[in-house]
Design brief:
- By secondary structure, the protein is mostly beta strands.
- Helix content is about 10%, strand content about 25%.
- It has two helices and nine strands.
- It has helices at about 55, 65-75, and strands spanning about 10, 25-30, 35-40, 50, 80-90, 95-100, 105, 115, 130.
- Strands 1, 2, 3, 4, 5, 6, 7, 8 and 9 form a nine-stranded antiparallel beta sheet that branches.
- Mean pLDDT is about 90; it is low at about 135-140.
C-alpha cells in the first residue's frame, strides 16, 4: 500500500518535532507489510520513523490542511498530498499507538513535506491505539 512511496525523497525542513536537525527523508516500504513504511533521515542514518497512512488506521480520520501549510508546500489539489502518521511501537506490537494529532504532509508533486500539528481543539491525540479500528488485511486505502 505504501510501496508506491518506495525510494521517494522528501524535504521536511526540520519540521518533525524533536528532530529539527533532520531535513531530508527517504521512504522505504516495509517488505513484510506494505501498510507500513520507514521515514528515514538522510542526514542521520540512526533516525527512522515507522509510519502508516492514518486513513488505514482510522477510516473516519479527517482534518483541514491550514492555508499556510498549503502555501508552504505548494499544494494545489487534494491528490497532490499523501498523509502519514508516526507509529510508536511497543511490546507487544498490538499495543502500539499512532500520532493522529501531528500528521506528516507530503506533496507528491514537488517532494516538499512537513509535520503539521492540529489545533488543541482537535479530537485526536498523539497516542491513538493503532489497532483500535485497524483492519490491515481488509480493503486497500491509500494516502
Amino acid at each position: 500500500m505504501l510501496d508506491f512511496l518506495q525510494g521517494r525523497t522528501f524535504q521536511l525542513n526540520g519540521s518533525i518535532l524533536g528532530f529539527e536537525e533532520c531535513n531530508e527523508f527517504s521512504i522505504k516500504a516495509v517488505e513484510e507489510n506494505s501498510h507500513f513504511a520507514y521515514l528515514q533521515s538522510l542526514e542521520h542514518d540512526y533516525i527512522s520513523f515507522l509510519v502508516i497512512s492514518p486513513f488505514t488506521a482510522d477510516q473516519d480520520y479527517s482534518f483541514e490542511i491550514e492555508e499556510k501549510d498549503k502555501k508552504l508546500l505548494e499544494i494545489e489539489a487534494p491528490e497532490d498530498v499523501c498523509v502519514l502518521t508516526i507509529v510508536t511501537t511497543t511490546d507487544p506490537f498490538t499495543d502500539s499507538t499512532i500520532n493522529l494529532l501531528a500528521p506528516i504532509l507530503l506533496n507528491m508533486k514537488n517532494g516538499q513535506g512537513k509535520q503539521s500539528v492540529l489545533p488543541p481543539s482537535s479530537r485526536y491525540s498523539t497516542k491513538e491505539p493503532l489497532f483500535k479500528v485497524v483492519q490491515l488485511e481488509s480493503g486497500e486505502q491509500s494516502c
